[in-house]
UniProtKB/TrEMBL annotation:
Annotated protein name in UniProt: Mesenchymal stem cell protein
Alphabetical list of Pfam families matching this protein: 4HBT_2
Organism: Limimaricola cinnabarinus LL-001
Cross-referenced Gene3D superfamilies: Hotdog Thioesterase (3.10.129.10)
Length: 190
């Protein structure tokens, strides 16, 4: 089940935090609970993605995105993610999460998030591609329109090479997925 109570707690906990610039870093604290664990008493890889939501949504509030989405009838959806899992995280571990928007292109906003142990070592890092959606018109809203709605410069900061490389790799990734495997399977069956 989605951790709605924890999400509300994060919004409440950060309700009086100062607004951030669009590329500002939001820092939040989290405890790994028993229901976040897999059978090895370690943070489940899928739950890691859910915990990243708990940092990204308050970030969105602090930089004004949530208000901008509501004012325009837009939504926000994860359109891709790449995660590096580097250190084991066990039950009741206390983590600091850092979340920030890095840049955007004509379709997506790219955010990065990291979870850090008390000694400062990063346990996991995510690059998240977010789409601003418009249910009325269907499709994806150019992030420059969101920035204009927020009263911000619509021009993106320079895209770092490591994000640009991921964007290129995603563009080359076949869709629909596994089409070659399906064709091979159909050939064998015939």
């Amino acid at each position: 089940m989605y951790p709605f109570i924890r999400m509300f707690w994060q919004f409440w906990r950060h309700r009086a935090d100062a607004p951030l610039p669009v590329t500002g870093t939001h820092e939040s604290r989290h405890i790994v609970m028993p229901w976040d664990l897999d059978m090895w008493n370690e943070l489940n890889n899928g739950r890691t993605l859910t915990l990243f939501d708990l940092g990204r949504m308050p970030l969105s509030k602090r930089i004004g995105v949530i208000d901008g989405l509501r004012a325009n009838g837009w939504g926000m959806a994860v359109a891709g993610v790449s995660v590096r899992y580097r250190r084991r995280v066990q039950g009741f571990a206390r983590l600091t999460m850092r979340s920030r928007a890095v840049c955007w292109d004509d379709r997506y906003v790219y955010t990065e998030q990291g979870m850090f142990r008390a000694d400062g070592e990063c346990t996991s890092h995510a690059l998240v591609r977010l789409a601003i959606t418009d249910r009325r018109q269907g499709g994806v809203v150019n992030p420059a329109r969101l920035m204009e709605a927020l009263g911000q410069d619509p021009a993106s900061p320079p895209m770092p090479d490591w994000i640009a490389g991921w964007v290129r790799a995603e563009a080359e990734r076949p869709w629909p997925p596994m089409a070659d495997a399906r064709a091979a399977s159909e050939t064998r069956a015939a």
